[in-house]
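Incident log, support desk, overnight shift.

02:14 A customer reports that sequence design results differ from what the structure should imply. Their input is reproduced verbatim below. On-call engineer (initials T.W.) acknowledged and began investigating.
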């Protein structure tokens, strides 16, 4: 996981990149998946499955169950289209779905905003320690809770 450049997608560009990434992995980009991804990408802070289900249900005029949203969000996380904030049980759209990064977040306890940071030296150190303990298929998830600069 060395340093590299990546393009930060937004709006239609982000949805197109997410669709391409999902289809390249052999999955279908259904209308429901597209609606859930668009809803997730529209949030400025981490969103819960309930937040997304409510928004998609209102837009479609029929109820979408949070359990269905959870399954799709898990698919998105597995295919690098979304990242899960473990401590908040909430999700963020990955703005560069073609790039795999470890999940390192700075989470504000006041406003709830989560900032994804890339620090390969930190995640490589965590990987090294985990490997020394015999772990395989390592996926570091690091969350730092505190108060962001805006709220401070």
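02:41 Re-run completed on a clean worker. Output:
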């Amino acid at each position: 996981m060395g340093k590299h450049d990546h393009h930060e997608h937004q709006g239609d560009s982000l949805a197109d990149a997410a669709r391409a990434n999902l289809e390249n992995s052999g999955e279908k980009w259904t209308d429901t998946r597209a609606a859930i991804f668009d809803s997730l990408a529209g949030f400025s802070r981490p969103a819960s499955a309930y937040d997304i289900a409510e928004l998609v249900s209102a837009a479609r005029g029929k109820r979408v169950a949070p359990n269905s949203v959870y399954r799709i969000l898990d698919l998105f996380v597995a295919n690098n289209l979304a990242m899960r904030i473990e401590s908040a049980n909430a999700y963020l759209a990955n703005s560069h779905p073609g790039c795999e990064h470890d999940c390192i977040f700075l989470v504000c306890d006041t406003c709830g905003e989560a900032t994804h940071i890339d620090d390969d030296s930190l995640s490589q150190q965590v990987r090294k320690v985990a490997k020394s303990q015999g772990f395989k298929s390592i996926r570091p998830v690091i969350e730092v809770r505190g108060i962001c600069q805006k709220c401070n």
